[in-house]
Amino acid sequence: MDATAAEEDETRAAKRARLTPSTADLISGLDDDVLLRVLGLVPDASDAARAGALSRRWRGLWARVPALRFASRPEPLGVSGAGLERYAAVVDGVLARRARSGCAIESLSILYATGSDEHSLEHQPTMPPFADAAQLVIPGLPEPETERNLEQQMPASVYAAQRWMGYAFRHGVRSFDLDLRLPFVPPNLSWEHDDDYAEGKKRPAVLLDELPDPVRLETMRLALGGTRLRLPAAIMKFASLTDLSLERIRIAAGGAHLLGRLVSSASCPRLQKLRMKKIYIQAFYEEMSLEADVLSELWMEDVRVLMSLKLTTPRLRVLHIYKCSHEVLRVSAPRLEELAICQLGYPAPMRLDVDGNLPCVRRLKLCLRSHCRSNSRLSSYLKAENDTSLLLLEHCSSLTCLQVILHGPKLFKEDVNMIKSRVPHLPHVTSLTVNVSLPFKRHGYGASVGSLLTRFRNLRHLSLHLPFFCELGPPIKSPRLNHLCHHRYHWKSNDISMDHLEEVELTGLTGTDCELWFMKTMLASAKRLCKVAISFNPCCWQHPGKMDAFERMLVDEGMLVSHRDTHTLTCLELICARGCSVTNIV
Q1: Measured at the alpha carbon of residue 26, what is the angle toward residues 23 and 28, in degrees to the nearest 5?
Q2: Which of 132, 117, 130, 253 is nearest to 196 (CA)?
Q3: For position 196, what pLDDT does the model report?
Q4: pLDDT of residue 114
């Protein structure tokens, strides 16, 4: 009996020994530094505070987290500023306690959003990936209801932003991200809604000139939801700032030169990366000069309205300018490696001045108009649209990768081809990406793409992205949707040589004969072709046998199908396919 009891005790002890390691709180045994790092990754401070319920070890630990993130739940669009005021009170309370505790905040992120989870930003519903950014967007009139919602929330957002920026500047925050996602109101074409006064009262503005110089700030993102920002008249020092992003901000009239000075070396001597998006200057014909000695990357999107933009950036490597309104663009950037200037839907710069050549540019993105009416009143202006792009091609003598947003379809017999007559041959370009813009029709892009391809003889990589054509609107599966065409000459009549082509990518196909003829033209001269990747528009009913026709054509050329599903097809040349299989096995 005793032996049996002893055996039972040993069995129970063994079970307890096996259970102990798996039931122990191993996380709480970690060092404070590790736990603080874990809590710093939590997306919202309220979640970090609730972590104290897990263990006594965690209680109060979140109050020492070096990285604090605040993220509101999206407020309904029709509410007043009361929701923002309640949210701001919570954030202010946490920041006040941290200030009293003496525990420094290294990184501070504050997000406030209006609207539903799906559309909390000003963004419109997105198009399919193959629709590309080559969409014609023209600013219009703001909706009265949206404008009223913005006016209701503007005072609370301005005062909250002022306090939070002041905290970050005064308390040595190294990384500061403020994102106010308010109802978006685009600038009125007449600008009558963008003055500093409304009904005799001065509109509220964030007063940057009343804040102290931030000593430790290294990265900052200010997305102010369309609020006004008053810039300092005197030089404000951001001695440690290396990364700056300014988004959705209105600048008072006369502020263009102040903005240029704010982001120049005089204020930001260490600035390396600068992004400006949706910056609206409330006056016409202002000049902005940016002189940055160590700046390496500059991204500008929808910055307007400027008479001239002057860039003096000796160490700049990346420059992207999208949809910015300026009449003159002056660039001095001898070390530039990547350049993109796309003004589709916006006035192109009347004059482009480049200081010397751009010998280091390897990657270039630009817009090209393929056709226009020779006797049109706008013909001189439309031809001037290409002048900027042609000048860039001349200055970029070492260019190897080119991305083109193609617009200006041929609509009439009298239309003049603006590519064959003006675009030079580009033998040094080995990679070409063509994004066809929305004004083209499903059967009408061939003449433009065909004439563009005649400018290249040494391509190794070619990508053609078709947009979500307007013809594909509902009902998409209409039996009347025409897949037949009679434009075989678009490809045959052009002297297209693809002797060195190795890879082809086609996206957004809709099942027309034009697409099949394009592939036949490529195969006629591309004897080194190694890979072809095709994807059809998933929102469009395609011709039942079109994918089969593509597959048969490629297989007849000695290629193997490596992948096929409902909308995509990938084929590899036999040697490449064997190489891929060996790689996968290894």
Answers
A1: 120
A2: 253
A3: 57
A4: 81
Amino acid identity, position 462: L
Tokens of 520: 């036949």
Give CA–CA dist 258/267, Å, rounded: 11
Q: Are 508 and 465 in contact (CB under 8 A)?
A: yes
Whether 537 and 468 have beta carbons less than 8 Å apart is answered as yes
For the stretch 471-510, pLDDT in tens is: 665 544 444 455 556 555 556 656 888 999 999 999 998 8
Decide: 281 and 254 in contact? Cβ < 8 Å. no
Closest CA to 274 of 245, 251, 316: 245
> For residues 546 and 139, what is the distance between their CA atoms, to the nearest angstrom?
39
pTM: 0.83
DSSP character at residue 63: G
The C-alpha atoms of residue 458 and residue 430 are separated, in whole angstroms, by: 6
Exposure string of 348-386, with b = 16+ CB inside 10 Å and e = fewer, is: bbeebebeeebebbebbbbbbbbbbeeeeeeeeebbbbb
Query: What residues contact 493, with CB distance under 8 A and at least 6 apart?
Result: 450
How much is the pLDDT for 539? Answer: 76
Calculate the alpha carbon distances from 437 to 2, 218, 349, 367 in Å: 89, 39, 20, 10
Each domain of the chain, given as residue ranges in start order, spans 66-122+146-283, 392-471+485-586
C-alpha span between 374 and 383 (Å, rounded)? 10
State both tokens at 27. Answer: 């996380």
What residues are paired with 328 via a beta bridge? 308, 351
Task: Give, as one character, the DSSP assignment of residue 59.
Answer: T
Question: Omega before 185 cis (within 30°)?
Answer: no
Convert the pLDDT of each residue in 253-292 to its tens digit.
789 999 999 999 999 999 999 999 999 987 777 899 999 9
* pLDDT of res. 137: 44
pLDDT of residue 200: 46
Residues in the chain where the model's pLDDT stays below 70: 1-63, 75-80, 115-150, 184-202, 344-350, 376-378, 470-494, 541-544, 575-586
User: How would you classify residue 259: left for phi > 0, otherwise alpha for psi between -120 and 50, otherwise beta?
Assistant: alpha
Amino acid at 55: S
- Distance CA(50)–CA(485), nearest Å, equals 64
Q: Which helix (H) or strand (E) holds 402?
A: strand 401-407
CA 490 vs CA 75, 99, 194, 444, 517: distances in Å: 53, 69, 48, 9, 9
Side chain identity, residue 209: D
Closest Cα partner for 206 from 256, 159, 169? 159
- Concatenating the DSSP letter of every residue in 144-158 gives HHHHHHHHHHHHHHH
**Residue 500 contacts residue 458 (beta carbons within 8 Å):** yes
Those residues with Cβ within 8 angstroms of residue 63's Cβ, 6 or more apart along the chain or in another chain: 97, 98, 101, 103
